[in-house]
Structures are given as C-alpha cells and as structure tokens.
UniProtKB/TrEMBL annotation:
Protein name: 1,6-anhydro-N-acetylmuramyl-L-alanine amidase AmpD
Subcellular location: Cytoplasm
SUPFAM superfamilies: N-acetylmuramoyl-L-alanine amidase-like (SSF55846)
Enzyme's top EC category: hydrolase
EC number(s) stated in the UniProt entry for this protein: 3.5.1.28
Catalytic activity: Hydrolyzes the link between N-acetylmuramoyl residues and L-amino acid residues in certain cell-wall glycopeptides
Length: 179
C-alpha cells in the first residue's frame, strides 16, 4: 500500500513489490538521495528485465549477461524508464538494497539512510528530458518530506565498484530543475 508521502510524490506510478528490502535501523533519518542507471541487457531499453531483476524473477537463460546477475538480491525505491514511467519497488520508509558496500562522508552503509532512484540508461548515452523532469519533480517532493542533505551518484558512494549515473548525466541541468 502506498503511503501519503508516496502518493504525493508519485502520481501515476506503478508499484511492483520487491522482496529485497528490510527495515531501516531504528532512528535512522533519510538524508541521502542516490541516483543510479541501469539497463538490461546492457544498453537495451524498454524490456521487463529490470523489473524482473528487482523482484527476483530474472531468467538466466534469456540473455548471456543475465547468467551473471540473476542471483543478485538488489532493488531500488524507484525506477524511471526512458519514457518517464515511474515504477516503485520499495516504500521510501523501508531500506532498499541499491547501494551495496558504500560510504558517504565517512558514514558507511548508505542503504540505511538513503533513497535509491534508478534511471533507465547507461554510462554511454544521454538521458531523456522526461527522465530529468520526473527525477526533479520526485526530488523536490522527497525533500519536502525527508531531511535530505545530499544528492549523489552511485559512483560517489562506491567509487571503486560503480560508475553510474555516468558522464552523460547532466548534474548542472538536474540541479537547476530541482531549484
């Protein structure tokens, strides 16, 4: 069931429950927003595979790449498709498993205190205008309800392991939209 906060931020979003979440540590405030990119198979858009990965239903026989990731227990709070559609997998108040081993400003375990948003895309292509618009709208709403102090890329909290959202994510443009 969507909470009041989610309804206000996510009008028109689909909700698909992921099993890959748990409770946040007691008393932990949501102070970080983490932006990611994902496409499955890599550099291919529009299919059901990201939803399947985040719900534990990815078939390793459908693509050679899937045999390397189908077993992962990962999720995000939101996924913004290339056409602007928003899919929610985990309630914002719960701990989605998007950041992995991570650290921000000396504080480890970013999943404990962050919201993760995946953009359908890759490190090698620009994102679509509608994705920026949706991300900015959602960011503004989240900042209204949560004490978010920083917005970072996955690469900022796990620089040895991750490169997303990548060099084609226009941080200046996004930050201007959020203002």
């Amino acid at each position: 069931m969507l909470t009041r906060i989610q309804k206000g931020c996510l009008d028109g979003a689909r909700f698909i429950a992921s099993p890959y979440f748990n409770e946040r540590p007691i008393g932990e405030m949501i102070t970080l927003l983490v932006i990611h990119n994902i496409s499955l198979p890599p550099k291919q858009y529009g299919g059901p595979y990201v939803e399947q990965l985040f719900t534990g239903n990815l078939n390793p026989k459908e693509h050679v790449y899937f045999s390397t990731i189908y077993h992962l227990e990962v999720s995000s709070h939101l996924f913004i498709r290339r056409d602007g559609e928003v899919v929610q997998f985990v309630s914002f108040d719960k701990r989605a498993w998007h950041a992995g081993q991570s650290c921000f400003e000396g504080k480890a375990n970013c999943n404990d205190y962050s919201i993760g948003i995946e953009l359908e895309g890759c490190d090698f292509e620009p994102f679509n205008e509608i994705q920026y618009q949706q991300l900015a709208k959602i960011t503004q709403c989240l900042k209204h309800y949560y004490p978010i102090q920083a917005i970072v890329g996955h690469s900022d909290i796990a620089p040895i392991r991750k490169t997303d959202p990548g060099p084609y994510f226009d941080w200046d443009y996004y930050n201007n939209l959020v203002k």
